[in-house]
Amino acid sequence: MSAVPAIAAVGLGRSFEVDGKPVHAIADLTLHVAPAEHIAIVGKSGAGKSTLLNLIGALDRGYSGSLQVFGQELKTLPDRALAQFRNRQIGFVFQAFNLLSNLSVGDNVMLPGSFGSGLDASELRRRAKALLDDFGLGDRFDQRPAQMSGGERQRVAIARALLLQPPLLVCDEPTGSLDGETAAHILSVLSDIRRTRGTALVIVTHDPAIAAAADRVIRLERGRSVAEGTP
Amino acid sequence: MRLRRLFGLVASNLRASWVRAALAMVGIVVGTGLLTFFVGLGQGLREKVLERIFPVNQLELEAKAVQIFGTEQVLGQEPLDDARVSQVAQLPGVVRAFGKQKSSFPARLWGGKELLGYNLFTEAFFDGMPAAVLKSELESFEDVAAKRNPMATAKPQRCEEDLDCRAGMGCADGLCTPIVWADRFVAIPDVVLPCAAEDRCPLAMQCKDGRCVGDDDVPPQRCLLPAPAGNGRELQFDAEVGALAQPCAEPGGWCAKPNTTCGSGRYCAGDNPETKLGYCEQPLPAVLNPLLLEVFNSDMARSLGAAPIGSLAVLFGVRFHIAMGDSYFSKDAERTRQQYKQAVVVGFSRKAPELGVALPLELVRHFNARLKGVASAAAYDALLLDTASNELVPQVIGDAEKLGLQLSRKSRAARTFGTVVLVTSLALVLLAAVVLVVAAIQIAQTFAMLVHDRRREIAVLRAIGAARWDVAVLVLGEAAVIGILGGLLGGGLALALAAGVDAAAARFLADVPLVPQGFFAFPDWSVPLAVAVALLCTVLGALGPARRAMALDPAAVLAQS
């Protein structure tokens, strides 16, 4: 295991102005996630889960304190470097899948390769096919996402997140739109990824079953970590 | 972002929102179509109408005139003589200058029977022009280069005179070769110029034995017509008419040699209409304005019951009669000073008078002097200038005005028409520019809506590794594709519309004189210009939306969704 933690946040804060008054979405948060560790972040709506996920996912760098992902302080990176960091180091899985409806399944999966990945088209295609094969969707390469079920779409989204083999997968309610059986399947897919690829998983969830599968559960309340422990 | 991938994303986005893209493109298509159409029209009017009637880079100047009771009068000016020609030739921007003299004597002209089946009769007007002025134009109308190509005379036929050769060929050095008509327009052609002691002879010639002779004069053969020309109606073009004459004891001192003719394209030109005696000579080389054919075909042919003449080529070598000093309408010259000559069409020039004939300058000067007095031949009527470029024309005009000269009516009309064409073209292009500005605004609105509708998609792209600039490139790429397609479509539609207008004009305006073959001339750069302008408009229109897409906060958008 590498000595560099996947995530190291110290005194992390993020506030927004609402009606001219500062609202602290994240306040003085300290968090360490080891490589290949699987953590779940839980909490009520408005607790700051999504804000924390955006910070960890390098979508938001307006934070105070320190936030290092694989040793890289995110707020020091300029836009293009930050985009490249997201591209190479972080995979996103969203509750609403967020597949591009006008692209085929294969093109959706290959999309991250469009932004300076350095991989040629044939390699991207090979990787995309392999991932879809792994997720039982090998024959759906040319279909449109609209022709698929929710579980299938989420698997496509996970394949997209894994295309460039990022060491960190950030999942925002990945089973929130799925029925129980499908959710369990997605969970097993994510667990397999972590086990077979050594990918660190940070999952925001309301689902106790998903949280229970994590190595650690961090409970947020008003932007602060109020409890941390094994499920 | 990889270019190929960019195209893929742009194409899929455009496919997904093709209705909006098509609507956004309408303005660009209309704008670039109008732009291309008007550029083609403006250029066409200049090339096919203006330059066809008024040659470019050429000016005609005349002595400055003042308006007195509605007529133009030249007062107290120095004559337009050779000294003035030299003076004008030295003005900055002038390549060369020549004098032109109009005929001041009455004349009538008839002929056309060999072409139309009957003769046409008309009063005649001549412009005397230096051969050098017309040379290049005569050669281009006749396609002299092809005739001088040795391949054209690969198998020469032996001959003794022109009649031994087939049509279009003449006898030169014992061989039939294509006749180069342009070469026959020379300063002093093989023509006898009758004179009296008080008359003026051209150049270095002097009056001797009743005709102008030069230093290396070879006396022309004398001939006898069957009868005096009279009013000329009975004169024939047949080279066999008339016989060589020899001195004898008959009254008049000349007898016809039996079974002889002038030969070699010559004919017997009577000394005056009252005598049978004449000289063997070549017909006068005549140059016509090509517009004359259009006027004939569109206006005259139908009323005369004649078939339109298909091309200028059939007029080369056509002969006609000219009665110098004779008129249907005005006071004639003395009969014994009149001259009945034959002329032959040797070419076409837009510098020739529209309703007249251009003859070598020295011939017109000679007949002006002989029929109207030496003073009438002393000065030129106008100066012809070639300028180095069109841009220098205003400067040359300004300099010429300081010398007491002004543009001739024809040149004034050309400049006025040119200005009208330019201003109209600019106004129409401005209209197209307004349409394009509106189209750019429409593009801006459309892309603002597209960016708004796709903000989640943009946020996802940002989340998976797209930089702000990648997003902007994507938006601008879509705009660029719309611009390029719109420009091509607009340019193509303009070409098609222009072709339709030209076809309609050819069909419905066929009988209108001076209507050109087409009104449009599209420069090679017209469609690329349409594409470039369309590209510029769409990209400029999409700049604002692209900036908004760049500024989109992906975290906020993803949180909303």
Q: How many β strands of chain B by DSSP?
A: 22
Multimeric status of the protein = heterodimer
Shape of chain A: globular
What is the count of β-strands of chain A?
10
Strand order of the largest sheet of chain B: 20-7-4-21-1-22
Overall structural class of chain A, as computed from helix and strand content, comes to alpha/beta
The helix content of chain B is 40-55%
Number of helical regions of chain B: 14
What does the largest sheet of chain B look like?
6 strands, mixed
Low-confidence sequence ranges of chain A: none
Distance between the termini of chain A: 23 Å
Strand content of chain A: 25-35%
First-last Cα distance of chain B: 26 Å
Major β-sheet annotation of chain A: 6 strands, mixed
Structural class of chain B: alpha+beta
Low-confidence segments of chain B, given as residue ranges, are none
Categorize the overall geometry of chain B.
elongated
Calculate Rg of chain A over CA atoms: 17 Å
Structure commentary:
- The complex is a heterodimer of chains A (231) and B (561).
- Chain A is α/β, with parallel strands linked by helices.
- Chain A contains 7 helices and 10 strands.
- A 6-stranded mixed sheet of chain A has the order 6-7-8-3-9-10. In chain A, strands 2-1-4-5 form a 4-stranded antiparallel sheet.
- The longest helix of chain A is centred in the last third of the chain and has 18 residues, at 180-197.
- The mean pLDDT of chain A is 89.
- Chain B is of the alpha+beta class.
- In chain B, the strands form 6 sheets. Chain B has a 6-stranded mixed sheet with strand order 20-7-4-21-1-22.
- In chain B, α11 crosses α14 (554-560).
- Chain B starts with a helix and ends with a helix.
- The chains are: A alpha/beta (231), B alpha+beta (561).
Concise account of the structure shown:
Helices cover 32% and strands 28% of the residues of chain A. Chain A is built from seven helices and ten strands. Chain A has a six-stranded mixed beta sheet with strand order 6-7-8-3-9-10.
